[in-house]
Amino acid sequence: MLAATVRVTRDLDAAEEVVQDAYVQALERWARDGVPAKPGAWLTTVARRLALNRLARAKTLATKLPLLLDAPEAEADPLPDDRLRLVFTCCHPALSREAQVALTLRLVCGVATPDVAHAFLVPEATMAARITRAKKKIARARIPYAIPAQEDLPARLDAALSVVYLLYTTGHTAPAGDALVRDELTTRALDLARMLRALLPAAREAAGLLALLLVHEARRETRTDASGRLLRLAEQDRGRWDRALIGEADALIVGALRSAPPGRYVLQAAIAALHAQAPSVAETDWPQILVLYDALLRVWPSAVVALNRAVALAEVEGPDAGLAAVDALEGLDGYRYLHSTRADFLRRLGRHAEADAAYAAALALAENIAERAFLAVELADGA
Prior knowledge:
19 helices, globular, 2 strands, 68% helix, two-stranded parallel sheet
């Protein structure tokens, strides 16, 4: 709805305001007349009408006129979808990369500010301030809602890929709530990834991101049992993994690896594909996965990547090596997976009291109900 409305207003703040006004009208009308057959279409129509009314009034203000003239409707539009168009528009080079991604997740993808903060591993107040600053910068600089030309898309691609990646990861394991997965986010991210791949077929990282998401989608149904209990990788029924999606991902990865050093998404997809191809956890090609993580760390130095590498290292060299790698990490004390990974290594080493303390630390940081239940069971099993 926001994407459709901003095409009329050509101003993100104004679009947000009229969308909120549309929701207010819905609360009033629907309580009186009942919910319409197509509530989404109703809201979009009302928001567009409010936006047009606002523009009609704004025509009397000379300060608004330049914004309308910056991007004529008749210009050729290289982008096939409102959401994708708005993603590229918000990834404006006048903003920092972090601001581009955070603002797009919040405004275009509808991810709540606490969840955006979670994706960036920063406090909610910090992220709220960053988003506000980004919006003010757009207003001060009078950055128009202007669809980038085809030749400008590659320069904005990396930010757009980051948006889709974080949108998917936020839906793949919801930061909070009852369900482990938020289908609306993962579906939206996969749609955007397919569109990016189709739009820029020569971009290897777009292929890598799509492949990565496809492998995760292939395994999604087996991540929990019928009661919603979170399952370890070793407990999942590999016979239920979607081999068609894995095959599609494999083809993308092979194509992306044919030329030039792979980037972060191609490498992550290759790691995920090795997991998907293995008959079991024990038969996984852990040495090759460790090599890929070493390569990933070179192109994407990240404490989270280093934590994931520690898991592969533990499989290759033993849990003591993995524990040493985890204990060398800095800046992840507030990250629940650091503590749960450390707990697993400690338990495998027979250091049960320390493992329980680490599981308790992870449990204290977890807000998703499925993850909390999983950690509570692990903690109880060690008691």
